[in-house]
Design goal:
The structure is a single chain. Strand 10, helix 9 (249-260) and strand 11 form a beta-alpha-beta unit. 45% of the residues lie in helices and 16% in strands. The radius of gyration is 25 Å and the shape is globular. The chain has 431 residues and is an alpha/beta fold. The protein has helices at residues 12-18, 26-56, 67-75, 79-98, 136-149, 168-177, 187-196, 215-224, 249-260, 275-289, 295-303, 315-325, 337-343, 358-363, 399-404, 406-415, 419-426; strands spanning 3-5, 64-65, 104-108, 112-120, 123-127, 153-157, 181-183, 208-210, 229-230, 238-243, 267-272, 308-311, 329-333, 349-352, 389-396. The chain has 3 domains: 3-17 and 235-366, Nitrogenase molybdenum iron protein domain (Rossmann fold); 26-102 and 123-230, Rossmann fold, CATH 3.40.50.1980; 398-431, no CATH class. Strands 1-12-11-10-13-14 form a 6-stranded parallel beta sheet, sandwiched between helices. Strands 2-7-6-5-8-9 form a 6-stranded mixed beta sheet, sandwiched between helices. It has a 3-stranded antiparallel beta sheet with strand order 3-4-15, with no helix packed on it.
């Protein structure tokens, strides 16, 4: 990885100039994506089959997977993986349940109330990619908080493999979670099918679509936002590590590599105040690249413009870098982890200490690995129970409590030039 040294105190503008992200122009693919969406809207199942054959090379996909096929996938899954997935489900269900918000009732006057309640969306389509890797973990991360939130209908979409079905591991995760509405549909077609429905498959439209994907899936989400709710568009994965010379170079190198193997556009950033440590990490990376199975993909990522080692002159500059970049995954491996963590305001998730690697969060920390990318951590949250809930207010006032506010309400409505608003109050005066 290239090393950039900054001798002066780091400023937010410096971060945006130095730490660039991989280019992902959704606009460049939007026209083609819109064409595919329109095909599905008009021609339904036939369009889906054509797209699967064109983009996935599968001629006879099983578009709607049967319950028997889902169970068979689970039966074919080795016990160790089943146990690992079950543990991940249990841990995420526990943290999701603990974060479930409670309804609150506020009382005014003698007997009037405003209730803040949380209502689940009634249906969610979950997406699990099936390209360079298969992601049963993504099934778990999306389905569990939706179930805890109370979503009644959950469907799973995942690309067809050469046998016409989604990956066995993906189906096994669905079986463990009790999801029996599963479709072998990937990419743009999945979003379009979830938004419009496919009558011939008994596929009714969904209210919301969640899950990671490539630039084409992100474009489809943008195009259909409003017709169907989405979690986020999601860009390439990214990790930023804050580390000083107290950290183990082998740990840091391994963590950088774990993200680099995702994708050639994955962003891997180390921020440190020690040039010696930076060089040791580079040496460790080179050793590990010689043996890791996905070395070609990982090396492209580590050598890309979106990845670098930034050497700064102070801990304060490290904090500036973290908060301005707002990484999807922020790892803290310093002698003062607690102090650093208290000052980090912008990140998808924080991984504190040498024994909290991002990979743990990917699978079974109990946290959720669906996190904001591309700097969205400055204003957006990772996927959680609240993602599937709508805050809704219920207002119930008595006549005496309403009449007590009559004159103030009239002043408000008249000041805004909306006298009929006030008349709606006075109409109840003589009841």
């Amino acid at each position: 990885m290239r090393i950039v040294e900054i001798s002066e105190e780091l400023q937010p503008a410096d971060v945006n100039r130095i730490l660039v992200r991989a280019e992902q122009s959704i606009e460049s693919v939007m026209q083609g994506v819109m064409t595919l969406i329109e095909e599905v809207r008009i021609d339904g199942e036939n369009a889906i089959r054509r797209q699967i054959e064109t983009f996935d090379g599968v001629k006879s996909p099983v578009l709607r997977v049967s319950s028997q096929q889902i169970q068979q996938a689970l039966d074919e899954t080795d016990n160790q993986l089943r146990e690992a997935m079950s543990e991940a489900i249990e841990r995420l269900r526990e943290t999701s349940s603990d974060s479930m918000p409670k309804s609150v009732i506020t009382k005014f006057g003698e007997s009037s109330t405003v209730t803040q309640r949380f209502m689940p969306v009634d249906s969610v389509a979950v997406y699990a990619p099936g390209g360079k890797a298969v992601y049963p973990s993504s099934v778990i991360m999306n389905v569990v908080p939706a179930q805890v939130a109370g979503v009644e209908r959950i469907g799973l979409f995942s690309p067809a493999q050469q046998n016409g079905l989604p990956a066995t591991e993906v189906l096994a995760a669905a079986a463990l979670l009790g999801v029996d509405e599963v479709y072998s549909i990937g990419g743009v077609g999945a979003v379009a099918a979830a938004a419009y429905g496919i009558p011939s498959l008994n596929l009714e439209p969904f209210r919301m679509f969640t899950g990671p994907g490539n630039i084409f899936l992100a474009a489809a989400k943008r195009a259909l936002r409003g017709m169907i709710g989405i979690d986020s568009e999601a860009g390439p994965t990214e990790i930023m590590i804050l580390a000083d010379d107290s950290a183990k170079a082998s740990h840091v190198a391994a963590d950088l590599l774990s993200q680099a193997e995702h994708d050639e556009n994955a962003a891997c950033v180390l921020v440190t105040n020690s040039i010696d440590f930076a060089e040791r990490v580079n040496q460790e990376l080179e050793v590990r690249l010689q043996s890791t199975p996905n070395s070609t993909r990982a090396r492209i990522s580590l050598d890309g413009p979106q990845s670098l080692i930034l050497v700064v002159n102070s801990e304060e500059s490290m904090i500036v870098a973290a908060n301005e970049y707002a990484a999807e995954h922020l790892s803290l491996q310093t002698s003062g982890n607690s102090a650093f963590a208290s000052k980090i305001t912008n990140a998808g998730a924080l991984f504190v200490g040498s024994y909290s690697p991002v990979s743990l969060g990917d699978y079974m920390a109990g946290s959720n690995h669906v996190l904001p990318t591309g700097g969205q951590g400055k204003h957006s949250s990772g996927l959680n129970v609240l993602s599937f809930l709508r805050a809704q207010q219920v207002i119930h006032y008595s006549r005496p409590d309403l009449m007590e506010l009559e004159q103030k309400l009239l002043r408000f409505s008249n000041s805004e030039g909306l006298p009929a608003h006030g008349e709606a109050i006075t109409a109840r005066r003589d009841d």
